[in-house]
């Protein structure tokens, strides 16, 4: 990739029968190997890697990874599979995507036009101040979209989504200007959660069965519920969004994750 990173969300479930069939020695060897494999600061690690403990019956462990090289990401999955406990860690769900700058992120010119439509005129000190502030923060915002840092928040939620193609609500037949305005409203709702929730949207058209993946990191579990509920009232979501399964997990070190899973 010339810009951005590949991204993989990989979910595992512990196969208790396979785990019980292992000798104590194999179990210990495999656990230590997987812990070493999942160290985010190791030389073999993708540029971003996070381990988390998953709530609910569909999965027990999540590994999220990002890197310019998709095979470096896949190598981690293969190391886990090939470990002494690989037979006991069964992949149950994965999501393949890439980071991107959305086409709905306004340029400086588009942002200026939006301010004018909202009633702020060029030459007004408020207009100049807003445009200059946006010009200064846009490069950092786009860099975070393409090369995201993982925030130090303990709660993670992931879900895939599409834009609807229903005959009465087809996102892809709406003009770009309408779609852009709807996404601007949607973004305004999300900004209200700054400092409590960090969001990453990755693109999966042509990579997976859904069009985007949404990863949310939150300071507290209730913030996940609040932001998802609040943003569902935006027209871009209420009329045009389709959601896949939600996975909620809690950030953990590889050592703590293995201990929690009783491996």
Automatic annotation (TrEMBL):
Key word Metal-binding present: yes
Lineage summary: Bacteria, Pseudomonadati, Planctomycetota, Planctomycetia, Planctomycetales
GO MF, one annotated term: heme binding
InterPro entries: ChdC/CLD (IPR010644), Dimeric_a/b-barrel (IPR011008)
Keywords noted in UniProt: Heme, Iron, Metal-binding, Oxidoreductase, Peroxidase
Ranges in a coiled coil: none
Keyword presence, Cell cycle: no
Protein name: Putative heme peroxidase
Source taxon at top rank: Bacteria
């Amino acid at each position: 990739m010339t810009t951005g990173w590949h991204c993989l969300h990989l979910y595992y479930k512990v196969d208790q029968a396979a785990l019980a069939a292992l000798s104590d020695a194999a179990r210990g060897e495999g656990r230590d190997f997987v812990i070493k494999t999942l160290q985010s600061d190791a030389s073999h690690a993708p540029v971003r890697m996070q381990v988390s403990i998953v709530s609910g019956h569909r999965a027990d462990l999540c590994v999220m990874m990002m890197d310019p090289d998709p095979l470096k990401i896949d190598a981690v999955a293969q190391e886990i599979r090939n470990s002494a406990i690989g037979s006991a860690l069964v992949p149950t769900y994965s999501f393949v995507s890439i980071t991107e700058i959305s086409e709905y992120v306004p340029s400086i010119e588009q942002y200026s036009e939006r301010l004018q439509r909202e009633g702020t005129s060029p030459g007004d000190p408020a207009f100049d101040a807003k445009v200059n502030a946006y010009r200064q923060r846009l490069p950092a915002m786009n860099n975070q979209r393409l090369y995201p840092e993982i925030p130090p928040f303990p709660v993670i939620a992931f879900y895939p989504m599409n834009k609807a193609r229903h005959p009465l609500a087809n996102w892809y037949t709406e003009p770009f200007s309408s779609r852009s305005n709807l996404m601007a409203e949607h973004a305004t709702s999300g900004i209200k959660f700054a400092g409590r929730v960090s969001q990453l949207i990755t693109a999966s058209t042509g990579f997976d069965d859904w069009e985007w993946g949404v990863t949310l990191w939150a300071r507290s579990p209730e913030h996940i519920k609040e932001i998802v509920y609040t943003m569902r009232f935006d027209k871009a979501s209420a009329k045009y969004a389709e959601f896949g399964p939600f996975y909620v997990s809690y950030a953990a070190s590889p050592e703590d994750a293995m201990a929690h899973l009783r491996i």
